[in-house]
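Researcher: Structure prediction, please.
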Amino acid sequence: MAIQHPGGTPAAPLLEVDGVTLAFGGVKALSGVGFGVQPGSITAVIGPNGAGKTSLFNTISGFYRPTGGSIRFKGQDITRIPAPQRAKMGLGRSFQNIALFRGMTVLDNIKLGRHAHLQTNVFDALFYLGRARREEAALRADIEERIIDFLEIDHIRHAPVSALSYGLQKRVEMARALAMQPQILMLDEPVAGMNREETEDMARFILDVRAEWGVTVLMVEHDMGMVMDLSDHVVVLNFGQVIAQGTPAVVQQDPEVNRAYLGSGDVGDLRRKLQAATHTQGAA
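Model: Predicted structure follows.
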C-alpha cells in the first residue's frame, strides 16, 4: 500500500535498501539487494532456507555492517549507524529465535524495549529520584494501557516468561518491539512454530498495529498463506539476491519464484501449494 500525495505521486519510501552486499570471508550472504518499504505498508521478505533473509534483517537493523550498498531510513543514510541508535530512530524488531529474558516477568521484558528512549541519567536511576520516577510511571502506564491491552496479555503480565507457551512468548516479544515506539516494526518469522489459532491471532495483531497505530511492518515469514493474505508488497530472495518483487498476485505468477521454491517453472505449482495449505488449515 503506497501512500500517495494529493498530486497522485507515491510517497518516498520510509526505508530504502540499495545494492546491499554482505560477505563473510569469501561467502556472499547478500548480493546487490535493493527494495523500498512504503510508509503504512506491510512488506514481506520471503525465500527458501538459506536465501539470506535473516542476514538482510540483521543488516537493516544494524547487527551486521554491509560490505557494499546503502540503507536509508526517512531519507537519512543509516548504513554506518550502530544498532542501538537505529532502534532509537524508529527501527524496532523481533527475532527468529525468541530473545526474551526467561527469568523475568512479561512486564519487565516489555519495559526493556523502551530503554533506548529513556532520558534518565545514572545518578537519578541509581537512587530512583525525580526524572527516573516520573519516567518509570509514564512508561508503565503506556505499556499497561496500550501495549498489554492491545496484545491481550493482561492475564500474564506478572508471569515469568519461562512459564509461557511458545505462542505467548512470541506475542511478548512483539510487545517488547512495540515498546520501542517503532515507525517500522521488523518481525522475523512472527508465526514460526505456532498452531493455527495462534497464527490467526498474530496475523490480526499485525493488521491492527498497521491500521490502529500507523506502524509500517517489514517481516520475514515462511507461512506463504499468511504472506499472501497480509502483504502489500513481497520481496523474494534466493541465494542472497532479489529474484522477484511486487504485489502478492504478481509474485505468485513469477516462474523464478516457483523454481526457487519448487524446482520447476510451472506457475500453477505454487498456487496449488497455497490452496492445499489453506484447505489443510481449514480442516484442522
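Model: The chain is about 40% helix and 20% strand.
Researcher: Thanks, that helps.
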